[in-house]
């Protein structure tokens, strides 16, 4: 739709407000109290919810409705939000009719436990693929962003988008991260890598890498059960734009976003090299055969 702002315009407009949200999240982290969880079963990462999630989403909703009311919007806390009903739409549109998504605190469990690798993730989606993603790490005072086909950039929060530098992933640690529900891949991978399983290795005292660890050379590959548009899918786009290999669990190319269900890509393999991707793929295939 010709009347819509460009993805770069959207990011530039929202960035000052996202920095305010980052400062707020960082300021209250040590004081935060968890709200009642989301009732999503045994996955304590998905169940966590805080005042920061609600407040940051409300801030971005107000900015969008006041600045770009024509845009579609889907925030993680849409069921809790007072503003969901005011947006024109909350789902994917036709080509050029962008959907903005937000994970106000990605890694809420990390956040509650005082770790510094939680993020605020905002994305701009087209019918077929992501157009832009920005992922801010408030406690680290840094952020990554990418525009489709232009690579991934990094900078500290004092730098505007134009002042950021291209992200170069090199010499990552030989560590594989397995997301929730992916522990069955571990036996094959431990022959070559240190393997971290989120559901079994998470600690309130010792920080483990998150999905964003692949952007910081903390891990060399990962497997996740699904790539939600608001978090795992968004981070996989940043990794792709930085030169990583991203496929489905069977090695296929990613489907267009419009073909996905429940705001989510299928399970993903993300690797910093062809060799690492092949090892992840072989582990996935062996696990399926057995």
UniProtKB/TrEMBL annotation:
Which residues constitute the signal peptide according to the record? none
Q: Which domain of life is it from?
A: Bacteria
InterPro entries attached to this UniProt entry: Inositol_monophosphatase-like (IPR000760)
Coiled-coil zones? none
Q: Does the keyword Magnesium apply?
A: yes
**GO MF term set:** metal ion binding
Needed cofactors: Mg(2+)
Q: Which residues bind Mg(2+)?
A: 76, 103, 105-106, 231
Concerning Pfam families, the annotation shows: Inositol_P
Record keyword Metal-binding present: yes
Which Gene3D superfamilies does this UniProt record tie to the protein? 3.40.190.80, Fructose-1,6-Bisphosphatase, subunit A, domain 1
Q: Which keywords annotate this record?
A: Magnesium, Metal-binding
Q: What is the protein name for this chain?
A: Inositol monophosphatase
Lineage summary = Bacteria, Bacillati, Cyanobacteriota, Cyanophyceae, Pleurocapsales
């Amino acid at each position: 739709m010709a009347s819509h702002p460009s993805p770069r315009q959207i990011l530039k407009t929202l960035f000052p407000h996202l920095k305010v949200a980052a400062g707020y999240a960082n300021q209250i982290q040590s004081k935060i109290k968890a709200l009642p969880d989301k009732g999503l079963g045994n996955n304590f990462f998905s169940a966590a919810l805080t005042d920061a999630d609600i407040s940051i989403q409300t801030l971005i909703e107000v900015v969008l409705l006041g600045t770009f009311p024509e845009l579609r919007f889907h925030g993680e806390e849409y069921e809790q939000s007072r503003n969901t009903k005011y947006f024109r739409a909350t789902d994917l549109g036709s080509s050029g009719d962008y959907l903005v998504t937000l994970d106000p605190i990605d890694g809420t469990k990390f956040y509650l436990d005082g770790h510094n690798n939680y993020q605020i993730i905002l994305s701009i989606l087209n019918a077929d693929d992501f157009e832009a993603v920005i992922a801010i790490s408030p406690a680290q005072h840094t952020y990554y962003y990418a525009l489709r086909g232009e690579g991934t950039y990094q900078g500290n929060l004092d730098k505007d988008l134009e002042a950021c530098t291209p992200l170069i992933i090199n010499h990552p640690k030989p560590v594989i991260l397995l997301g929730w529900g992916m522990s069955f891949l571990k036996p094959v991978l431990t022959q070559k890598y240190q393997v971290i399983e989120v559901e079994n290795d998470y600690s309130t005292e010792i920080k483990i890498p998150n999905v964003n660890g692949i952007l910081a050379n903390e891990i060399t590959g990962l497997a996740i059960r699904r790539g939600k548009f608001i978090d795992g899918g968004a981070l996989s786009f940043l990794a792709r734009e930085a030169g990583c290999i991203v496929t489905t669990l069977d090695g296929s190319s990613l489907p267009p976003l419009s073909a996905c269900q429940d705001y989510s890509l299928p399970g993903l393999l993300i690797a910093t090299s062809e060799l690492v991707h092949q090892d992840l793929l072989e582990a996935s295939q062996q696990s399926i055969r057995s």
